[in-house]
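ok posting inputs for the 2-hydroxyethylsulfonic acid job
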Amino acid sequence: MTDIAQKTVVVTGASSGIGEAIARRFAAAGSRLILAARRQDRLEALASSISTNCLCLELDVRDRGAVADAFGSLPEPYRNVDILINNAGLSRGLDKLHEGNPDGWEEMIDTNVKGLLYVSRAVLPGMVARESGHVINIGSIAGHEVYPSGNVYCASKHAVDALTRGLLLDLVDTPIRVSTVDPGLVETEFSRVRFYGDAERAERVYKGFQPLRGEDIAEAVYWVAERPAHVQVAQMIILPTAQGSAMVTHKK
Ligand code: NDP
Ligand code: 8X3
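and the output
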């Protein structure tokens, strides 16, 4: 098994939902954590509630220069990143493409695709030089299927899937592992963000069935990371039991 307690782990989007749950799971194992998100107050509250060493990075992953600076100037104990968990992401709107909001499209593409690229580009050279590391992307069932009005969000998660597969090829001659963990419906702040703060509409998404919790995904990510060095879980799709596909969820 991989000894997670000895690892330095980056979690992007650690201020909420799946990322926060991942941070708590790795903290429970004793990892050294680098937590990144825009809401520094949330990160600090999280850091003060967990017992391991934590570095909080107030970071917008869309800002290429800021990402390069942040990961290029990590303080000594955090410098050698072992596990990168590219989790930061969001959806904006659920509209037919011809009625969509281009500002929302840009937020999704800039965060889910370009942000993941910037962080990976900043962290991977160190892993390659040290011949050690693991990149775990948080994709989505929306990276495998397209649902009505999901257009740009689904495209961004298909891009994450393509980038994961590209990285698997690019790193095949290294000991670095690449994985994607791809959830279905997880109850987090995701839908509230998608619907621009409309809490009632967001709650309706998770009504009538048992959605996944952030902790369910965190446990899967932890399991993927803990496999022995020769085992690379390339892809894992996780759905609530009541969900059969991106478009079919059985609601009572
Ligand atoms: P949340 O809204 O609860 O969390 C999203 C996280 O991403 C927050 O910590 C947020 O932090 C961070 N984030 C968003 N934009 C940026 C940015 N520009 N720079 C840095 N951090 C950013 O949603 P989830 O936990 O559900 O989402 C996490 C990931 O899981 C996303 O990639 C999402 O696409 C994916 N996913 C979610 C599913 C679901 O049903 N919930 C299902 C499948 C995949 P802050 O706002 O502080 O910057
Ligand atoms: C989030 C899950 O089905 O809302 O990626 O797109 S879904």
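notes: Residues 8-243 form a domain with the Rossmann fold fold (CATH 3.40.50.720). The chain has a mean pLDDT of 98.
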